[in-house]
């Protein structure tokens, strides 16, 4: 197997995690992975060996998400708001652990630009600078989206978060 | 002094330089509400990591893996097999990890003495063990120890960063056991690691292991003089 495909395969678990944070369910997330992988394989000439493949792939995936999400955002948003509404008032267990559904609903209630910042920094563990580069925005824009996204998540998840 | 929400968040994520971090720490000391907000930021990071970590552990669906393996003989999937391996595999994993770390350390510091293995467990040795024993969070050096805490069993654990490797080590009867190791985020930068720049993912891992709050300077000094025994 060529090194390029090998490296992509090694990244795939993290890419699926990022996709799951962006997309609204597991099936959509794997569809997004497929679209992003197709795009990466087609544009492998633009990959510069020696640079970070994870950042390159996160960027491709995020752009793919914007492309596919735009066409269906209106319908999805209505649905997500309803689903998120149901989660309000649901308590965590005795240890304050939030159930998966609460977190998913809170994530999907965020505007895309905040959710992608939260996903890159808090879930994928990128430094602010790296996340700003993936999103192609200045550091100040990244931190302001990140802080607003976190405040919204904390407000929605309540004391337990 | 006022601390804006972005700066407080950056502090919680370990994204501030040492001078800014000290400013925020002074503000926190004067205002418990700020300390609470830092704790909330870290708790949110831990909650999100915990929620999404299992996705990266799942076996990759065949249809995705196949896109990267077209015209190639099907290979076993390491991630899918790892979960089914028996107990001895953890031993192999530790050896593999020590080899990987040894390579990193060997290349960057010409000092393979950072790590030793015993019974398949990784331990700090040499300069790393020395730093973990003696350094406080405020000390500078080739190894930094920005955060100390107690885990759920009450053992003292410390986050360390260096050019060669970053990780978390916990103190036990046989010295410092390495619980997390990864190539140093400081690699290829300067001779001395920079304070306040610990890998956010590492900090999140520490947050997950932590019982209560990180040690403050006084508690850390006390733990050091007690030889890090719980």
Following the backbone from N to C, one meets helices and strands of chain A in this order, namely HHHHHHH
Main-sheet strand order of chain B equals 3-4-5-6
Q: Could you report the average pLDDT of chain B, rounded to the nearest whole number?
A: 77
Total count of helical runs of at least 4 residues of chain A: 7
Strand content of chain A: under 5%
- Give me the secondary-structure category of chain B: alpha+beta
Mean pLDDT of chain A: 83
Structure description:
The complex is a heterodimer of chains A (161) and B (230). Chain A is mostly helical. Chain A has a single domain, classed as PhyR, sigma-like (SL) domain (Butyryl-CoA Dehydrogenase, subunit A, domain 3, Up-down Bundle). Chain A contains seven helices and no strands. Chain A has helices at 3-22, 26-42, 53-87, 100-108, 112-123, 128-135, 139-157. Chain A is globular. The model of chain A is unreliable at 78-97 (pLDDT under 50). Chain B is an alpha+beta fold. Chain B has a domain at 85-225. Helices cover 47% and strands 17% of the residues of chain B. Chain B is built from nine helices and six strands. Chain B has helices at residues 5-12, 18-30, 32-57, 62-67, 78-82, 88-109, 126-134, 200-209, 217-225; strands at residues 115-118, 121-124, 143-150, 156-162, 165-172, 175-183. In chain B, the strands form two sheets. Chain B has a four-stranded antiparallel sheet with strand order 3-4-5-6, with helices on both faces. In chain B, strands 1-2 form a two-stranded antiparallel sheet. In chain B, helix 3 packs across helix 8. Chain B is globular, with a radius of gyration of 19 Å. The two termini of chain B are 38 Å apart. In chain B, 36% of the residues are buried. The model of chain B is unreliable at 71-95, 102-111 and 188-196 (pLDDT under 50). The interface between A and B is large, with 42 and 37 residues.
């Amino acid at each position: 197997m060529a090194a390029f495909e090998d490296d992509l395969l090694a990244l795939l678990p993290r890419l699926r995690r990022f996709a799951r944070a962006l997309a609204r369910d597991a099936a959509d997330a794997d569809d997004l992975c497929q679209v992003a992988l197709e795009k990466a394989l087609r544009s492998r000439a633009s990959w510069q060996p020696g640079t970070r493949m994870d950042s390159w792939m996160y960027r491709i995936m995020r752009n793919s998400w914007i492309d596919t999400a735009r066409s269906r955002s209106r319908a999805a948003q209505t649905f997500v708001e309803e689903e998120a509404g149901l989660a309000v008032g649901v308590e965590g267990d005795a240890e304050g652990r939030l159930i998966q559904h609460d977190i998913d609903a809170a994530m999907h209630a965020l505007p895309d630009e905040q959710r992608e910042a939260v996903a890159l920094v808090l879930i994928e563990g990128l430094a602010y600078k790296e996340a700003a580069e993936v999103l192609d925005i200045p550091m100040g824009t990244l931190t302001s989206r990140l802080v607003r996204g976190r405040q919204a998540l904390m407000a929605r998840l309540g004391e337990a978060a | 002094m006022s601390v804006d929400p972005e700066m407080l968040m950056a502090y919680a994520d370990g994204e501030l330089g040492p001078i800014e971090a000290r400013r925020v720490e002074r503000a926190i000391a004067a205002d418990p509400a700020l300390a609470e907000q830092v704790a909330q930021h870290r708790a949110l990071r831990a909650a999100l990591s915990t929620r999404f970590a299992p996705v990266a552990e799942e076996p990759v669906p065949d249809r995705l893996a196949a896109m990267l393996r077209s015209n190639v003989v099907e290979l076993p999937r390491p991630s899918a097999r790892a979960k089914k391996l028996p107990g001895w595999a953890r031993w192999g994993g530790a050896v593999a990890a020590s080899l990987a770390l040894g390579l990193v350390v060997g290349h960057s510091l010409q000092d393979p003495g950072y790590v030793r293995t015993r019974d398949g467990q990784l331990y700090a040795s040499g300069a790393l063990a020395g730093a973990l024993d003696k350094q406080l969070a405020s000390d500078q050096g080739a190894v930094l120890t920005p955060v100390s805490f107690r885990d759920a069993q009450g053992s003292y654990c410390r986050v360390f960063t260096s050019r060669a490797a970053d990780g978390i080590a916990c103190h036990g009867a046989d010295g410092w056991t390495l619980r997390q190791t990864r190539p140093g985020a400081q690699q290829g930068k300067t001779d001395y690691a920079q304070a306040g720049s610990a890998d956010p993912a590492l900090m999140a891992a520490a947050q997950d292991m932590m019982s209560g709050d990180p040690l403050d300077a006084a508690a850390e000094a006390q733990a050091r003089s007690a030889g890090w025994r719980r």
